[in-house]
Amino acid sequence: QKLCERPSGTWSGVCGNNNACKNQCINLEKARHGSCNYVFPAHK
After folding, report:
1. Cβ–Cβ under 8 Å, residues 40 and 6
2. Over the stretch 21-34, which tens digit does the pLDDT of each residue have?
3. Residue % of the chain over a pLDDT of 90
4. Which Cys pairs does UniProt list as disulfide-bonded?
5. Predicted structure pTM score
6. What are the residues whose beta carbons fall under 8 Å from the beta carbon of 17, sequence distance 6 or more?
7. In the chain, what are the domain boundaries?
8. For the residues of 1-44, what is the DSSP string, one character each?
9. b/e for 16-30, b at 16 or more Cβ within 10 A?
C-alpha cells in the first residue's frame, strides 16, 4: 500500500486499488494524473 503523502496535500489516506486517491487528486487538485505526487513528479 502506498501512502499519498505528497506536498499538494488534500489526501491523507492510503492509495489502494480503488480510485479514491486518483479521483481526489484529479478532481480537487486538478492533477493531470491520478498520482498524488503530481506537484513534484520526481519526488516519491
Report:
1. yes
2. 666 666 665 656 55
3. 0
4. 15-36
5. 0.28
6. none
7. 1-44
8. -EE---TT-S--SEE-SSSHHHHHHHHHH--SSS-TT-SSTT--
9. eeeeebbebbbeeee
